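Thread: glutamic acid complex, take 2
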Amino acid sequence: MSENGSLPVRVRFAPSPTGPFHIGSARTALFNWLFARHHGGTFILRIEDTDRKRFDPDAMPLLLDGLRWLGLEWDEGPEVGGEYGPYFQSERSALYQEWAEWLVEHDLAYRCYCTEERLAEVRERQKAARQDPGYDRHCRTLAPEERARLHAERGGEHVIRFKMPLEGTTTVHDILRDDITFDNRRLQDLVLLKSDGLPTYHLANVVDDHFMAISHILRAEEWISSAPVHKNLYAAFGWEMPQIAHLPVILNPSGKGKLSKRSAGFTEGGRKVPVLLHEFQEAGYVPEAIVNFLTNVGWSFGDDREVFTVEETIARFDLKRVNPAGSVFPVEKLDWLNGVYLRDMAPERLAALLQPVFERAGYRAELDRLTQVVPLIQVRIKTLNDALDMAGFLFTEQFVPAPPEQLVPKKMDAAATRAALERALEMLEGLPDWRAETQEAAMRALVEEMGLKAGQLFGALRVATTAQAVSPPLFESMEVLGREASLARIRLAIDSLA
Ligand code: GLU
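Output below.
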């Protein structure tokens, strides 16, 4: 049920496939999906691909994979079908032509024969006179003979323009922003159908929302200026306009300016801020954290809670808690949030998620070994990629030892380090088993025996076996690494200190 009536809720996410899937678009998709799921309605994916010049063939797979990765399954649309298809606007041209012609027949739109050159002249004239740019409505009032003459002269080539009301105001009711009133004198006679017979955004969007029985339009704030155009189109057709909400723009983490495609890669406090969904995937974030994170951009769960499941969000989602003011992209929260999800995840799932990450980085990562490693790193990583730095040493086939000077602990020299490692090797070689506890007991005894600090010996062993200064707990790591490999690495270290 809709919020104010008995129409079934049908919402659409209507991206144009002109580039990679931007995180702001993902937020729009998410809010539509949450709204549909909350109301037991239908979530529709419609591809607004009428701008053939800007069409990017890579966009579709990124979009479909991205939506599925986030768990935003669509009920109607590409690959799943539905009763209101086709769901690609490029396959619906006949419908747009029919309704553009209908408007012309009813004197609500007109054929415009103006050439590019004439339009350029008009622009120049307006610029010189410091007037607002826009079409001067030359063809709106042509006498029939003149119209016929131009039609013949241009070989029938024309566009169809909408007859915008010339006076008065247009008021659009926005669910989040109440009434927004526009001065009709500032509205243009926009092109609805281009000379190639393809529709512009406005015509296709309105015709499709009507014929797909869309109940609510939830779209980004940047479309507000289109709302009065659409409202007048609905009025011309005599159709009821869906309810509409313009979702708040997402601002850069600094709060200055919109998070746009151009923000990609800009650094915030020295780190790269991803803005494209596939960049978040590649950076090692998990979808449930991204969904939770995006839910917090412009909406609040309440009760001061920042972590919640998608089921909890569906149960609670309403538009009343969307804040129409622009929301800053709190990217610094994302690492923390992702860490929370990784920590609470079933270890088998984490191992499965880590496998492709390790493989992409060139490691041979068997699931068995990853499953052993997960308990050592699960609470220590914030992204999947952190696991590479943390545990890569367990998977390298060609171990590259750390430079010898890194082996030498504070207040020790190379000779003393070598002596300590030689003694450690001897004791470790003689251990009855390779469990972490057994190793640790022996090494603590050695610390006593040699009058060292635990940190000194353990530090040298850590660098020797992992070639890293930071690693998961030392003896657990050596247990997973295995006796043979651990001892071999310690021997290498000893040799390097010679
Ligand atoms: N195709 C538009 C876009 O790319 C759709 C805007 C709307 O939802 O009306 O965002």
